Amino acid sequence: MTNKRIAGLLLHPTSLPGRNGIGELGAMAWQTLDWMAQAGFRLWQVLPLSPTGYGDSPYSALSAFAGNPLLISLDLLVEQGWLEENELTELRSLSPERVDYGRVIALKFPLLRKAGERWNDGASDNEREAFHIFIEEKKSWLDDHALYISLKSRFQGRSWILWDEPFRDRHPEAIAQSQKQLKSDTHHEQWLQFQFFQQWKKLHEYAHQLGIQVLGDMPLFVAYDSSDVWASRDLFHLDKAGNPTVVAGVPPDYFSKTGQRWGNPLYHWENHRANQFSWWIARTRAMLDLVDSIRIDHFRGFAACWEIPSAEPTAENGEWVKSPGEELFNAIEAAIGHLPFVAEDLGIITPDVTQLRKKFGLPGMRVMQFAFASGADNPFLPHNHEQDSVVYSGTHDNNTSLGWWYEEADEGIRNRVRSYLGTDQLPANDALIRMAFASVAETAVIPLQDVLGLGSEARMNRPAAERGNWSWRVQQHQFSREKADWMRFLIEMFGRALCNEG
User: Fold this and answer.
1) Which alpha helices (DSSP H) does 156-293 contain, by range?
2) Which residues, listed in sequence order, are joined to residue 7 by a DSSP beta bridge?
3) Catalytic pick from 75, 189, 217, 344?
């Protein structure tokens, strides 16, 4: 009988090893999947795969539908004859330890342009036919996205709200004119998406061959400066000029006296309802073309969103406004069937959020680093977990477990960890991994940094920091046989291997 208890690894593709300044979807990704299978992992969790915008954050994307061209493997393009090995020399001089996004963007996009031009001149009939089919299949979002990116380049990278009015407001004659004048640019953007989807599809299929499923990530909100908002302004609370009237965030709490003002435009739910939530259904289907299941970030926003007037400089003067979560999920379920979602239900969660999650049978999240800040009734402690949960040692927003132990956990927390375990002999990462694997939660996911026993230097994201996030990369030599054997031992010991035995 197949075992429902599984172990997963949290690792975003930008963090993969490789020679080209950023993790890519080529040989190193395939070899990483081999190591994961060897270690006994059956789930690979990634962050949003979308093209990144301001701050290089995958949670602030230029599109909710498109893939990130920076993940396209240049090595595969060399193998296919669209690039020469020596053309990658400067890119390969970049540090393999951290992503320097500014330099990677400056060097990689011209190479992708060169590869695209050569493909235009030399692609086979079969390749051209596949490209044509791809364009037709993705037409509902690809045409707008390709034009948006091309216009954004024409306007020196500025947000669409700062474009000349005819283009900002999508006047039909301006759109027709730009489609004609920027035909080469939009064609290239379509080709980039074609390459991303081709490479990801092959990698995803290989994961399946190894018995590994992929858990993707869907941010609740989209970025204001995105092709989604530019192309579908009626789906968001914007004024006639396109400026947000209200924006998203969270209210003041223990961690922030003024709350958090994220600035994302809020959904105009009445217009979504009038369209039978077709945009959400299309978004979900598009994601499920890439992954097997989806973690929904900020799930509580489907019960109610903190609505902040756009003129307010902080999140203090907002209000909770109900969201039609039940209607939305009913519509998606009617369109696609079973909802393969994981609800990110961290933070202050009200009963209506839990009720919504349970109504649709969605697993919630438990994080071991949060388990020891209070007493025995702490919901993150393993003895309080439920089967329909996904348990983590930490997430991409947390410090690594060793970094947390030495830099954030006070002596009271450390003593509670020691007492709970009955020992003080385990390193913090080992302790939290063991507790996560021992949990009754059917799925346990461990960030690679914790598997490797890395400190805060390997942290993926510091939510309060404006720079330096999303840049950590693993080195190939760190995927050792010793680490794989250790993880397989723990995965089997806690009943998370492929099959039940005995």
Assistant:
1) 165-168, 172-181, 183-209, 227-231, 269-274, 278-288
2) 444
3) 344
The sign of the dihedral angle between the CA atoms of 371, 377, 382, 385 is: negative
Structure tokens at 275: 């369209």
Q: Give the Cα-Cα-Cα angle 320, 323, 328 (nearest 5 degrees).
A: 165
Residues 6+ positions from 362 with CB-CB distance below 8 Å: 299, 339, 341, 342, 343, 388
Integer Cα distance of 501 and 281 in angstroms: 40
pLDDT single digits (tens) 102-146? 999 999 999 999 999 999 999 999 999 999 999 999 999 999 999
Angle between helices 325-336 and 278-288 (to 10 degrees): 50
CA 164 to chain centre: 32
CA distance 446 to 429: 10
**Does residue 34 have an active-site annotation?**
no
Q: How far is CA 264 from the centre of its chain?
A: 17
How would you label 473-489 residue by residue, b for 16+ Cβ within 10 Å and e otherwise? Answer: bbeeebbeeebbeebbe
Quick check: 252 and 258 in contact, CB under 8 A? yes
Cβ pair 218, 283 in contact under 8 A: yes
- For the record, the structure tokens of 169 come out as 């407001």
Which residue out of 56, 217, 228, 297 is catalytically annotated?
297
The C-alpha atoms of residue 104 and residue 93 are separated, in whole angstroms, by: 11
Q: Is the pLDDT of residue 502 over 50?
A: no
344 catalytic per annotation: yes
Alpha-carbon distance of 344 to 357, in angstroms, equals: 10
CA distance 225 to 246: 15
Decide: pTM greater than 0.90: yes
Catalytic residue among 312, 326, 397, 492: 397
20-58 per-position pLDDT tens digit? 999 999 999 999 999 999 999 999 999 999 999 889 999
Measured at the alpha carbon of residue 121, what is the angle toward residues 118 and 123, in degrees to the nearest 5?
Answer: 90
| Residue 345 known to be catalytic | no
Alpha carbons 104 and 470: distance in angstroms, whole number = 13
